[in-house]
């Protein structure tokens, strides 16, 4: 990427508006820049996704049971990139966005049991080409609302024709029970104005997260009693 591309402001979150204002060429040019900017994140995501697929298949073949229930990779949309940049007061330039927004590429790995979350996280982060940058363990220390998940920011090298780019990817690992709660909480409440939701309902959502955590413990115990610890 050249410097001129790097420094150009991103205004393509509302391409329709630009086009309507009569700048179709400007829109195409910026759209191409944005696609170029996002391309390495797409590749980084593909690299991590492949690693997870390999782990899941190999563990299945090893006969010790596949700890991964499902995986969903996602690339942040231009609209959410610009919205987050505004929230962070981050200038809308590619190099600032690259430095400040670390979850442009994200992958959610939903595991069967809590111990599987840590097993998979370790299997991924001990690979020599995976650089662990940040760990946020919301399982050991849940958020105040009860949200639980293990969040990692890892960097993975992407080999382009003329350079290697270390691409950050946000990896969210959680159990099915944590995923069930987080998906529904997201629909019900997440990022809504806290003032419009009565505290009683907020407390009830938090209590539901604790129910889910108890269910996790119980299912893990049942699994261990029947199958013994995973090898
Ligand atoms: P974002 O700006 O939302 O990316 O948050 P952050 O940069 O402070 O990072 P954090 O690790 O706290 O959260 C990252 C992501 O985890 C979010 O984008 C959500 O996908 C998920 N998440 C975090 N907190 C909650 C929560 O309370 N409820 C739900 N449903 N998801 C959450
Ligand atoms: Mg995020």
From TrEMBL:
Keyword annotations of the record: Kinase, Transferase
GO molecular function, one term: kinase activity
UniProt-annotated stretches for the region Disordered: 1-24
Ranges where the RelA/SpoT domain occurs: 73-196
Biased composition (Basic and acidic residues): 1-11
UniProt cross-references to InterPro entries, sorted A to Z: GTP_Pyrophosphokinase, NT_sf, RelA_SpoT
Gene Ontology annotations of biological process type: guanosine tetraphosphate metabolic process
Protein name, as recorded: Putative GTP pyrophosphokinase
Species of provenance: Actinoplanes derwentensis
Lineage, uppermost ranks: Bacteria, Bacillati, Actinomycetota, Actinomycetes, Micromonosporales
């Amino acid at each position: 990427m050249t410097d001129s591309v790097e420094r150009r402001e991103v205004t393509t979150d509302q391409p329709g508006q630009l086009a309507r204002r009569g700048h179709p060429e400007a829109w195409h040019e910026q759209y191409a820049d944005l696609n170029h900017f996002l391309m390495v994140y797409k590749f980084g995501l593909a690299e991590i996704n492949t690693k997870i697929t390999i782990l899941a298949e190999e563990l299945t073949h090893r006969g010790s049971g596949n700890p991964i229930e499902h995986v969903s990779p996602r690339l942040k949309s231009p609209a959410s990139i610009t919205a987050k940049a505004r929230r962070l007061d981050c200038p809308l330039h590619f190099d600032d966005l690259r430095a400040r927004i670390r979850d442009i590429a994200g992958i959610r790995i939903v595991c069967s049991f809590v111990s599987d979350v840590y097993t998979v996280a370790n299997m991924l982060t001990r690979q020599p080409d995976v650089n662990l940058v940040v760990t946020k363990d919301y399982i050991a220390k849940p958020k105040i609302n009860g949200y639980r998940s293990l969040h990692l920011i890892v960097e993975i090298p992407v080999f382009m024709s003329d350079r290697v780019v270390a691409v950050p990817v946000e990896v969210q690992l959680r159990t099915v029970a944590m995923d069930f709660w987080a998906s529904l909480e997201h629909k019900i409440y997440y990022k809504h104005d806290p003032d419009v939701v009565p505290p009683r309902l907020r407390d009830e959502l938090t209590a539901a997260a604790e129910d889910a955590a108890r269910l996790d413990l119980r299912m893990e115990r049942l699994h261990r009693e029947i199958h013994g610890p995973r090898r």
